[in-house]
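for the writeup, i need someone to sanity check this before i put it in the appendix. the sequnce is what the collaborator sent (i think, or maybe the updated version? ugh). structure was predicted straight from it, no edits. if anything looks off just tell me and ill rerun, i have time this weekend
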Amino acid sequence: MSYELNFRVPRFTALNGKKNAAVCGFDLKTEVLTLDGWKRAIDLDPFEQVAVFAPKEKNITFQYPIRVTKDFFKGDLHRIQGRQISYLGSYENRHLVSTASGSKWLPHRLKAAKRILDVRRKYLKAGSLNLRDRQLWSNKWNIDPHEFARLVGFFVGDGVRPYLAKDNLLLKKKFSNQIRFKLTRQRKIDYLYSIKGITVEKKASDRYVINLPGIGHWFAQHCFTERGEKRLPDRYLTLTRAEVRGLLDGLKNSDGCQLRKNWGYSSTSVSLLEQIQALCCLNNLNASWTTLHPGDENKRPVFNLHISSDRLAPLAGKKPQTPTSCSETVVEYDGFLYHVKVEGALVLRRDRKVIFG
C-alpha cells in the first residue's frame, strides 16, 4: 500500500520490537555492485568488496563493508520511481545528490533522504573507478591491450561458439587454436580487419578465422557461461580506461547501434547486459534498460541497453511534476531491511535502475 508523499518526516512504528526507532537500509530487491557484479545484500560474501563512491575524491573504489546488517522493520519507507530510477528504503539512508541553489546546481554530496524531501535534486547514476583499482588484462599473444579489448568486445557480439554448451568441450581440437566469426555486413568485416596485432583469414560461407596458439581455448573459457551464453571475461570491472574504451567499441560495432551521440546494445543474454551496465556505471556512462521483445514460446526476450554520457537521473523534489521527473511516495512496509555500511555511497540497483546512496 502506498500514498502520496507530503514532505514530512515519516513515522517508524517498530524496529526489532522497539517503537519509534530509526533504521538505515533498503529492501530485498535492491542490489549492490561487487567485483563479481550485481548482488543482493543477503547474498553478499562476508569478505566481498563492494563498489563505493567517495564524494571527497569524486571517484569509485572497491572496499570491504564495515558491516552488513538485517533488521526487521515496520513503518514507512521512501519510494522513488521514474524511468531511470527506482528506490525503496529508509528515510535515514543517505543519497548522493546535487541540490539546487538558485539557478546553480551544487556538487554531489551525501544527504539523508528525510532532509531533502522538498528540495530540488538530481541523483548521480555513474562515476569513474579509481585508477588504483584498475588493472591491465594480460594476453600471451602480445596483442596491444586496447586492441585485445576491441577483439574481446567484438567476439562477445559476433563470435561463433567453439564448443558444445552441455559439456563445455571443444568440438574439434583445431578450434582450441582459432576463433571464428560469420559476418555478412561489410562494416563488421571492415571492423574485424581494423583490429591491430591479429591476422584474419577469409574462409568459405562468409566465415572469418583468427589462428593463434590456444586462443580458441581462452575465449571458450572466458567468454561463455556454463549455459553457453556470452559473457565478459573475469576482472572486466577493473580494466584500464583504454581497455574499457576498446571493449565498448568492440561491443558497439558488433550488436550495437549508433544513436546520434549515444548508442544501444541489444541481446537476449540478461547476464551479459548486466555486466555491461555495471561496467558503464564505473566509467561515467549511464546504461538504461528497455525491452525490445517480451518473448514468447518461439522466441526468447530481447533487451536493449541505451548507453549515454548523461550521468544524472531526472529531477526529483520539484513541483509540479514534469514528464522527466521522478514520483515520490510513502510505502507502508512490514519486513526486513538490509544495510551495508561503508565510507561513502554504495552503487545500488533496483529494477535494473542504478542509484548511488
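Confidence is low (pLDDT under 50) at residues 1-21. The chain has two domains: 2-125+315-356, 133-308.
thx in advance!!
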